Amino acid sequence: MQIVNLGTMAGTNVDSFIKNVQNTVEMPNGSFVTIASQVSGQPDLYVAATPTDVTKEEVLLVRSPELIEVNGLRVDLTDVTLFTNPANRPATAFHLKVGDDFTITDDGITGVTTKEKYVIPVNGDIKPAAADDLTGNTLVAMKVIDKTTISVGNRRIPATKLLVVRSV
Hints:
The structure is a single chain. The chain is mainly β. The protein has one domain (4-166). 0% of the residues lie in helices and 42% in strands. The chain contains no helices and 13 strands. The chain has strands at residues 4-6, 18-22, 32-38, 45-49, 60-62, 67-70, 73-76, 91-95, 101-105, 118-120, 129-131, 141-152, 155-166. A six-stranded antiparallel beta sheet has the order 1-9-13-12-10-11, with no helix packed on it. A five-stranded mixed beta barrel has the order 2-4-3-5-8. A hairpin with a 2-residue loop joins strand 6 and strand 7 (73-76).
């Protein structure tokens, strides 16, 4: 399962760049979602949806703390590769701003990423895709600034460090 490590993100300093979202299906950290509406009766919770038109919709990055519930207590998960945001439960999503950077494991991106190329959201998928250039008019786009790894225990999982170069 994909992993996301936040780097310098506007949302870590400005609360208005973070939204609490929930989806009707499980979604891993690193998912790209849009906000469809507000959850009825929940003023601070929004319905997450799969992007349908990335040229008109702002896409947010899902990245929740890797916690699980055990006997009513929230506990850190030691193997974060096993984490997914459960269906119909709140998750954390970040509005992406130009200059934000984050690292995502390569299994969270469709295609093969290459340094100095791009990653863009895709219609009909919560997984972004590798792209050679920015010819599309997506509202959000990231540049590959490094090929790296994320360590989980003694494993090193291939990952890509991204810099947001286009945002709403």
